[in-house]
Amino acid sequence: MPEKDTIRLAYQPRKDEVMEYHVVTSSLQHVREGDRAATHEYCLEMLIEERIVREVPPDAFDAEFSIREGSVTKNSMTTPLRPAEQTLTVTMRKNGEIIASSVRLPFVYPSFPERDLSPGDSWRGSGEVLFPAGAPSELRGKKRSLTFDYEYTYEGLLPIGDLECAVIAVSCPGTSLPAGDNAHAKITAGGKVFFAHRQGRLLGFHMTTATVIDSGDAHVESRVTTKLELAV
Fold this sequence. Notes:
By secondary structure, this protein is mainly β. 0% of the residues lie in helices and 65% in strands. The protein is built from no helices and twelve strands. A hairpin with a 3-residue loop joins β2 (36-56) and β3.
């Protein structure tokens, strides 16, 4: 029997349910290659619709995602996004593990352990950082992304509106990884997840990831912040 103060986190999909998420991803990048240096700023803002298509026994479900509207701002130049004509299809277990995906999602769903949790309990997850478009030539044509581990920690419950939400801290205090031939990367990350545990619904999260990549006389520093909120 679960203890009184414990909870179990899981998504609770309902067929034909539709949710909209407001997603903003901003990036600041400093690039130095030899005696050349540049700074790039980028912001992607989207309204994404998620529709639950069907349950997939025993413990998974299919969901479709589509971009309803959005814009891209690069170095102060803003371009509107056209609504997506095609949907992205994802099969996900109720613990948040992605089983199959037609394309890479623009954000990562938090995953949960299949056990009861008390405040202070932790578990491991994995994340991915894409190499920025302005990466030095030493890195082009090599690895397109880096995968790293981070830690979730359940902090406790917080009322948000009429909902009781689990607050989960996400952290990666500093991970060093090979990033290709003669290249090295260091990643740090941190953020919070807000999950309505009784409804089994993601309310939002914010995450900041800092990456430093060195390759010979090339050096890239980038800071990416993603904020997702359930639209009401």
